[in-house]
Every structure is written in structure tokens, then in C-alpha cells.
Amino acid sequence: MNTFEEEDIELQESEAEMFEHFRFQVDKGQSMLRIDKYLMLRIENATRNKLQQAAKAGNILVNNLAVKSNYRVKPNDVISIVLAEPPRDTSIFPQEIPLKILYEDDDIIVIDKQAGLVVHPGHGNYTGTLLHGLKFHFKSNGHEETNPLLVHRIDKDTSGVLLISKDETMQARLAKQFFDHTIERKYQALVWGSFSESEGTIVGHLARNPRDRMQMTVFPDGSTGKHAITHYRLLESFGYVSLIECQLETGRTHQIRAHMKYIGHPIFNDARYGGDQILKGTTFSKYKQFVQNCFEILPRQALHAKSLQFIHPRTEETLFFESDLPEDMTSAIAKWRAYSQNQI
């Protein structure tokens, strides 16, 4: 596998918003045309069914008002649309994969994803993904025609709560919630360093690092990339490392990982962002061996999608789901806690 394929796997699997936002102003000379037909001519790969589902979900706005798919555009109309963006590789077949299901109904399913599980097929990962496992789960329960539809993603080596839709209309409604930032997502992470303040906010546009395309980097002047906001709160300090909670306002690629590196606190054992090196602490060999033992206990970035709160796209009920920290993270945290107490 070449470098760019590895890069694609990592970036495709990242915690990135699964929607596309478009805005058009209708030309003065435009004849009255159904809005679904109008948009099919302007949005690549947008099928009529996909546009009709978006309209049904209330995701097509004309002059800030939701319209049906049979609305006829008029000159100078301002059209705004949010479309759910499926993975480009969508051939999913059933594969038996262990899954921890937190909740399921006719419209959605909430998964507590284990670290190491790729979410959807892509370069180098055409089988053995979460979506293959869900297809098997649906088939085993007599719903062979049901297809899992992603609303958001988390990295392969990030664990925690993930929301999946079973219906295109529900997917479109959930995509709109992500776009409107009304979904509340909280993560927990073990990061390098100690904090002088108990909480803070990181604001900085994110884009690929021009010197290392396998990383995202912060452009604080907003000259490139996408606007990103991460709020963090200190939960526990262990001297050389800290346990924090992060709340996402946006869901950009590698947002927490890149933002924490930007403020000098890379996630513990995050190889992509330098957290797999000893960044804080003493030079004693005993300490170095201790850190190495922690790396072996937790052989991935110490990042966990702790909770997710959203409005059910059909019932409009507010739902909240939470996932316990997995054993690899709790074991590493316990070792750091004991180490820090022994230093007092």
C-alpha cells in the first residue's frame, strides 16, 4: 500500500461531518423548473431520490424556507441544501463481526465501537468494517434489505459512541442536526502535559498539513481549511499527563487530535501527531520504561467518544447515550494515577 492510500484510509475514517452543504442563487433568466431537477443539474452525483429525501427531511431551503421537491425555482431564488454524504465505496455485504449495540429501533442504531474497527470500506479496507457487521446484524434479524447509513465517523483507533441511520430520510434529518451543531458530542482523552487552567476553548481552521499530508494542522489566521471549535475541561491531572473531556462544536477531520497538538498537548500514544514519544517527564530510565509499559497497555491514541446526545429524527425525543472507557484506557489511566501519587 502506498503512502497516499494509507493517508486516505486514515482521513476517510476520521471524525468528519458526513454531509455536504450547497448554496445557489438562481439566474435571472432561469425558467421555472422543479427544484429537484434544477439541483440534479448542479450537484455532481446527486440522484433525484437523494434530493427528494433531502426535501422530505426539510433540508432544502429556498429563501430560508423549507420547500418540497416539486417546488419550481424562480429567478433570484437563494437555495440552500444539506445532503447526507455516503462513503464513495458502498458495496456492503454481510460479515459476522462482534458489535456492542447501545440502542436500536426502526430508524437508527447506536453502536459502542471498539478500537481497531474501521467504520466503512475504503482503500485497503474493503471488508471487515463496521458497516459489514451491521449488514450481517440486520440480515440475521430478518431485515436483509436494510442498509446502514453513516451520519458521522470516528477514527479506526478511536473507540466509543457512533450513530447510524437505517433510512435515507432519517439520515438527512440527522445530517441537518450535525450541520446546525445541535448534536452534543463529548470525548475523553489522555494527553501529554499539565494545564494551568481547568478549561479552555480552541478555535482554529483545520486543513491538511502542507508538509505532511497525513496530518491535519491548524491555520489560526483562517487563511485555509474549515472552521473548527473544541472546548476542553480538565478531569484529572497526573503531572506529566492529564485526563480531559472535549466537547465538539464542529466535527472536522482529526479535530481533537490536531487541536490538542496545536496547544502543546498531543494525545497520549497518538503516533500520527507525535504523542507516541515521551514529551514530558524525567530522563530516568525507570520513568522511560514506565511510559513504554503504558504505550504497550494502550497501543493506540488515547481517545474515546464518551457520549452523544441528539434529537430522534422521527419522534423528536432527546436521546442520550454514553460509553464506558475501554479497558486499555482505564488501565493506562490507573497506572498514571498510581505513578503520580507515588511522586508526592
Note down, in words, how this protein is organized:
The structure is a single chain. With 344 residues, the chain is α+β, with helices and mostly antiparallel strands. The protein folds into 2 domains: 19-84, RNA-binding S4 domain (Structural Genomics Hypothetical 15.5 Kd Protein In mrcA-pckA Intergenic Region, Chain A, Roll); 89-344, Pseudouridine synthase (2-Layer Sandwich). The protein contains 8 helices and 16 strands. Strands 5, 6, 7, 8, 9, 10, 13, 14, 15 and 16 form a 10-stranded mixed sheet that branches. A 4-stranded antiparallel sheet has the order 1-4-2-3. Strands 11-12 form a two-stranded antiparallel ribbon. The termini are far apart. Residues 1-9 have low confidence and may be disordered.
